[in-house]
Amino acid sequence: MDFKNKSVISIRDLSKNELNYILDKSAEIKNNLHPEGLKNIVLASLFFEPSTRTRLSFESAITNLGGSFFGFADDASTSVKKGETLKDTIKTITGYCNVIAMRHPLEGAARVASEVATVPVINAGDGSNQHPTQTLLDLFTIREVFGKIEGLNIGLLGDLKYGRTVHSLSMALSAYNVNLYLISPEILQMPEHYKQYLDKSGIKYDSTDSISDVGKKLDILYVTRIQKERFGDPQEYEKAAGSYRITLDTLNKMSSHVKIMHPLPRVNEITYEVDETENALYFQQAHNGIPVRQAIIGLVTGAIK
Ligand code: CP
Fold first, then answer.
1. Are residues 48 and 112 in the same domain?
2. pTM above 0.85, yes or no
């Protein structure tokens, strides 16, 4: 399968075979089969919006396999502040690197960047639109723990309106035969066009506002933070804030084997006592960002076949 020079912008651009191929490569990398696999590869790490996991795991990923990176964690120190456009920024940086990882607050920014870059662009999150590398590490973690993705009962809980991780993940899961439960307060429901995508894919899904309706059925509960930064109206945020929280008590009312996932950062939607249970998967999930991002960088640069 040839990914060379291909940008990774939306999860919907990847077929199920391509998703599985990336997961297989990630597993090989995690098993140390590609030491030095990114030697001589230079990554531009361009973060126009805050990040801990995505940026630092990209930077650790490339360094650990023999490559290098440069970039910024905040555009305040760049010529964007003098009025330079995104297109001109990318047209310049594309000459300094082999691959670009970019996070930007505007939906569609990664697609625009990929249209002017001469190297592959990896979308590290664009507004509330897509976060494809997060989805790949989510799928990798699910497969690592359950040995499969097909047939699982998966609940997506929280901010399904603005959460880019659940937008990407629900699209990817529609390629697998899972049962999906969309659990959110009414004002944070999954936007209609994502539901239409699920309808078209033929995936089975239900929507509810209560975890207690479905908790006993779930193999995985994927919890998300309410995306405060995306609310136009602070009063709307206040209405939604604190409307769900996973505690030991909540866990006790769910299936005993349920795994709790979360893209992180969390604010208060999972209490710290849950971290100590066998159900908590979110830090293993975050750590899987390394092999998965190594696989993506390697494949799109042609350094890993
Ligand atoms: N999951 C995720 O995207 O985390 P960061 O915002 O810390 O990168």
1. yes
2. yes
pLDDT higher than threshold 90 for residue 241 = no
* Catalytic annotation, pick one of 55, 104, 131, 259: 131
Length of the chain: 305
Answer yes or no: are the C-beta atoms of 243 and 120 closer than 8 Å.
Answer: no
Q: What is the whole-number distance in angstroms between the Cα of residue 124 and the centre of ligand 1?
A: 9
> Are residues 104 and 198 located together in one domain of the fold?
no
Nearest CA to ligand 1 atom 4: 53
**Average pLDDT of every residue of the chain:** 96
Strand intervals (E) in the chain: 42-47, 68-72, 99-104, 121-126, 153-157, 179-183, 204-208, 220-223, 259-261
Model confidence at 237, pLDDT cuts 50, 70, 90, reads confident
- CATH number where 119 lies: 3.40.50.1370
The two three-digit tokens of residue 219, written as one number: 């193999």
The verdict on whether 53 is a catalytic residue reads: yes
